Amino acid sequence: TPGTTYRFYIVSEGLDGQFGLNASNEITPTTAALARPPSPVNLRTTVVAAGSVTLQWDTGADGTQPVSYFSVYQNGAFLANITGYTLTLNTLTPGLLYDFFIVSVAANGQTGATSSNTLEVIIGTAPALPPAAPLSASYQFVNATTAQLNINPGSGGGLVNGFAALELNSQRWFFSPGANPLIRVDNLTSGQSYYFLVFAVGRDGQRSAGYAQVSFTQPQGIISSPDYPYPEPCGTPWSEGYHPQPNSQQYGGESPIQYSWYQR
Q1: CA proximity to 116, closest of 105, 102, 106
Q2: How far is CA 233 from CA 124, 136, 137, 160, 264, in A?
Q3: Domain 40-122 falls in which CATH fold?
Q4: Which of 150, 124, 144 is closest to 218 using CA atoms?
Q5: What is the torsion angle, in degrees rounded to the nearest 10, for the CA atoms of residue 93, residue 127, residue 57 and residue 162?
Q6: For residues 22 and 180, what is the distance between their CA atoms, to the nearest angstrom?
Q7: CA-based nearest residue to 165, from 193, 200, 189
Q8: 40 near 60, Cβ under 8 Å?
Q9: CB count, 10 Å around CB of 192?
Q10: Which of 57, 81, 225, 228 would bridge with 43, disulfide CB 3.0–4.6 Å?
């Protein structure tokens, strides 16, 4: 069994059935664990119509094994295996609430470390208006490996169901707990700079067209903040001096990086 430790030793036995006085030395090897595929992230809808919905998702960067297929779950039950990154369902009941999540599976049978975010969709309603983009985002250091993004929501647009932040260097997505305008960012490296685009997420999982931006360099030796998870912001956007090039505030397409970074 992969990832399991076993104990072995040798005992001699004669033709008369007598065993040797002493057993051999004992060894305890551990079999190698099977590699996992990257976890699916950013599950969202692209079309919601009467009786149908189209789901779309991306892959994260937390696995090393290629993805063989994705398992789609509807209302907690297995629905189908998909080799691509989109699925259209046409036999749903209008007016009902459905929830979906995705699990990645490798050829060796291993699944991603986590499933995708759970997406709730009301079928048979017109697609909701996209939410307004956040006005700004700041940050608060929690400890040497964790920071918190503090989001100033925009006004107008559709219902805001949550917030999502994309870190441009690692292509990792981070999500808020519901509509709470705070995003916890874990597993950071001290001394490394990070650059985030922060989106609002609507009722049907669609992202705002615009985004807020924030960057920082994770310091070393930060003591845990006593007022986490509701600390006062201690930084301002681009406090490290990094800025996107002009006219790059609209995010369109599946490739998150729309421009290069430069320092003023």
Answers
A1: 102
A2: 41, 12, 9, 22, 23
A3: Immunoglobulin-like (2.60.40)
A4: 144
A5: -110
A6: 66
A7: 200
A8: yes
A9: 11
A10: 57
Distance CA 106, CA 93 (A): 32
212 vs 35, higher pLDDT: 212
Distance of alpha carbon 149 from alpha carbon 235, whole angstroms? 10
CATH of 136-263, one of 2.60.120.620, 2.60.40.10, 3.40.309.10, 1.20.1640.10: 2.60.40.10
Dihedral sign for Cα atoms in the order 187, 191, 196, 200: positive
pLDDT above 50 (res 227): no
CA 62 to chain centre: 9
Q: Cβ distance 152 to 179 under 8 Å?
A: no
Domain-by-domain residue ranges, the chain?
40-122, 136-263
Q: What share of the chain is helix, strand, coil (3-state, %, to 5)?
A: 0, 45, 55
- The pLDDT tens digits of the residues spanning 146-174 come to 999 999 999 888 888 899 999 999 999 99
Asked if 45 and 55 count as a contact pair (C-beta separation under 8 A), the reply is: yes
154 vs 139: CA distance, rounded Å? 17
Q: Length of the chain, please?
A: 264
Where is 80: in which H helix or E strand?
strand 77-82
Same CATH topology for 40-122 and 136-263? yes
Looking at per-residue confidence, does 78 or 226 come out higher?
78
- Provide the CA 233 distance to its chain's centre, in angstroms: 24
- Mean pLDDT of all residues in the chain? 79
